Amino acid sequence: MTTDTTTSATATEPSPAGTTGAFPDGFLWGVAFAANQVEGGFDQGGKGLSQADVIPYRTAGDYVDISALMKVSDAEIATAVASPGTAGYPKRSGSDFFGHWEEDVDLFAEMGLKALRMSIAWSRIFPNGNDAEPNEEGLLFYERLFTRLREKGIDPVVTMSHYEMPLHLVTEYGGWTSREVVGFFERYARTIVGRYTGLVRYWLTFNEINTTIIESYTGGGVIEREPAPGVDPRQAGYQALHHQFVASALATRIVHELDPAAQVGCMLARMSHYPASSDPADIVKAQFDNNMNLFHTDVQVRGRYSGTVRRFWRDQGITVVMEPGDEELLAANTVDFLSFSYYMSLVSSVSPEKYGATGGNLFSTIKNPYLATTEWGWHFDPEGLRYVLNDLWDRYQVPLFIVENGLGATDVLEGSAVDAAHDGTDTRRVHDDYRIDYYVKHLREVREAIADGVNLLGYTAWGGLDIISASTSQMTKRYGVIYVDADDTGTGSYDRVRKDSFYWYQKLAATNGAVLDEA
């Protein structure tokens, strides 16, 4: 793959499966989280407010309309800015990774991880986004973190923008609807890539970039407002998305220029759609829905917009403004690998009213009668992951990377902390066999996909530590293999407690997947 200025490194291909274990040699076993959900320290180290810092805690009710929980109005932002502390805004505290990062890295090393998929908080580097100079305290924080990770044999897989941008760019520029933000991001990308050359070998540009269409505030910093008469309300999201594609191409070019040994990937929330029936109309609808999910990776991997989305724009009267040279830039700066999240499959029908609904990642879907659902109403579909891997490999023929997959559940902490009056033993435990079962069933299908011929770089389970939910800003919905002792209000010791899944994942990494045959 080449850029318009230099030849980039080719994404590493693991050795054939079965050489030393159940998965390829060099397979990157890891965990994943986002800065805005785990880091905390929202007012420390020179950090500015981000778009995530003003999202309040919300009660999700029946959890069906997830995207509605991720919107923030002008009035809510004003209230949040006037609220100086963390009360009511859990992402400001996160899991206090900012204060516990050294301990957490030691835990990751104890697990035997080879990768940590994480993100940089843009507002920790450029507090307002348009600052003339970066914040040195923020740069040094990540430099120390990446250095320690590499010393422990852990590769940081770093997302440049994961559901957050400096709030100033949201309120003063309109988020990614503004072309000016592309330039601010280009400066940010050049700053971090230049600073961390040799420390970061795997970069991702935007997390789940399709979210900008599904929920434009979270994905693109676009505050939902009434559009001008005759303007499709989705137009702002598509315009913001185009600017992100341009920014991603510029960032890809920067990485290839400054650090040819590094690799760049895009990141998609893969929402695979099954037809609700064998009715050809349902099949065509599912095909359309899949293509509308995959047009994002068409742009970033193939370097061009698909016919599906261009026709959709024409049919809906949506106009996306592109500057001269944009399409050439996209074509010349495609990514080295494709990363994605997978939590569930969806169902499509031309007559959805005939079917019941269930919850999902970012939005609801028709209930699939052949699949069980999780506590939050998400379809439990391990075989769907094998299908997705084969589908993406057949379509793109570039290395793939699963950077999010995991189970959110209400974990129960049993036992008590160290009691100095007795024997000093910490008896706290979390018995999460259900999470281990989730991993086993999904990873067995991943192994099948590798045997099918899919080139897969690694797997980073979401979310390593317990994190603040992206949608509801709750801690109760726990994803980690490490328990964080804090509740939805931020009350707790923030102690780290190894769950049963921690020890299982440790064995998974040590055996390169062979433990899957023992479960």
Automatic annotation (TrEMBL):
Keywords: Glycosidase, Hydrolase
GO BP terms, alphabetized: carbohydrate catabolic process
Pfam families associated with the record: Glyco_hydro_1
SUPFAM superfamilies found in the cross-reference section: (Trans)glycosidases
GO terms for cellular component: cytosol
Active site as annotated: 404 (nucleophile)
InterPro entries (UniProt xref): GH, GH_1_N_CS, Glyco_hydro_1, Glyco_hydro_1_AS
Example of a GO MF term: beta-glucosidase activity
Family in the record: Belongs to the glycosyl hydrolase 1 family.
Name of protein: 6-phospho-beta-glucosidase
Source taxonomy: Bacteria, Bacillati, Actinomycetota, Actinomycetes, Micrococcales
